[in-house]
Structure formats: structure tokens, C-alpha cells
Write a structure and sequence with these properties.
GO molecular function: rRNA binding; structural constituent of ribosome; tRNA binding
Oligomer: single chain
Subunit structure: Part of the 50S ribosomal subunit.
Family: Belongs to the universal ribosomal protein uL16 family.
Number of helices: 2
Shape: elongated
Largest sheet: 4 strands, antiparallel
Number of strands: 7
Radius of gyration: 17 Å
Function: Binds 23S rRNA and is also seen to make contacts with the A and possibly P site tRNAs.
Protein name: Large ribosomal subunit protein uL16
Order of helices and strands: EEHEEEEHE
Strand order of the largest sheet: 3-6-1-7
Structural class: alpha+beta
């Protein structure tokens, strides 16, 4: 699963996801892409599940690019623990996804397989998406 090798600080504030994506909103590698429409945090497990769904439907033909990386540590306290005693330990890693961000790109397969693969991958993600094609640009 994806996570940073090392970070400057172990824990982060929650923060908010404001505004549109200021980068990563163009097709750079493939011909088909999955683009986020709403702001959301996507966990490393969800990214991996979507990647597996896409590659399985493509039957390992073509190529898949993951354009997001989970670099935000999300902490949580164990169940049935009283308030106080500091912040909980890091539970999982997440990526902040802004509206307009390209999350996955694929190439090397025909139109119907590409669209179905991205649709299956989008079902694994907690964010509303749309499929973008190179001709749309």
C-alpha cells in the first residue's frame, strides 16, 4: 500500500479541502482518465482497491498511472478510550483530492474496455468522478 517513506512530522491537523485543484487537472500520460468532481479524502486502501479493479478489468493490458499519493496521516484513538491523554496514533494515510484533480490515467486499451475499467475503479472511491477522454481537450 502507498505511504510516504518518511515525513517531517508524524501527525497533522485535519484541515479543510478548499477550492479547485491547482495542478494535476490535465491528461499527461494516458488517453482516458478518472477526474474528481467533489473534494474528499481518499485513503491508501481505496486507491489500491480502485487500481486493482482497473487492472483486473483491463486483463493486464495497457498501462495505468496513479496521479494521487496518500501523504496525509490520519490519526484515531482506540475504541472505549476516555477523552484527553493526547492525540491518537496514526491509523491510515490519505490523499486530499480537490475538484478537477485527475486520479487515474489509462492507455493501451480500446474505448469500451477503458470506460468500463474506469467505471469499476470509480465505484471503489468515495468521491464523485467523471471519465475524461483525450479528444475532449
Amino acid at each position: 500500500m502507498l505511504q510516504p517513506k518518511r515525513t517531517k512530522f508524524r501527525k497533522q491537523h485535519k484541515g479543510r479541502i478548499h477550492g479547485e485543484a491547482k495542478g494535476g487537472f490535465n491528461l499527461n500520460f494516458g488517453s482516458y482518465a478518472l477526474k474528481a468532481i467533489e473534494p474528499e479524502r481518499v485513503t491508501a486502501r481505496q486507491i489500491e482497491a480502485a487500481r486493482r479493479a482497473i487492472t483486473r478489468h483491463m486483463k493486464r493490458q495497457g498501462r495505468v498511472w496513479i496521479r494521487i499519493f496518500p501523504d496525509v496521516p490520519v490519526s484515531s484513538k482506540p475504541t472505549e478510550v476516555r477523552m484527553g491523554k493526547g492525540k491518537g496514533s496514526v491509523d491510515y494515510w490519505a490523499a486530499r483530492v480537490h475538484p478537477g484533480r485527475i486520479m487515474f490515467e489509462i492507455d493501451g486499451v480500446n474505448d469500451t474496455i477503458a470506460r468500463e475499467a474506469l467505471r469499476l475503479g470509480a465505484q471503489k472511491l468515495p468521491v464523485l468522478t467523471r471519465i475524461v477522454v483525450r479528444e475532449d481537450w
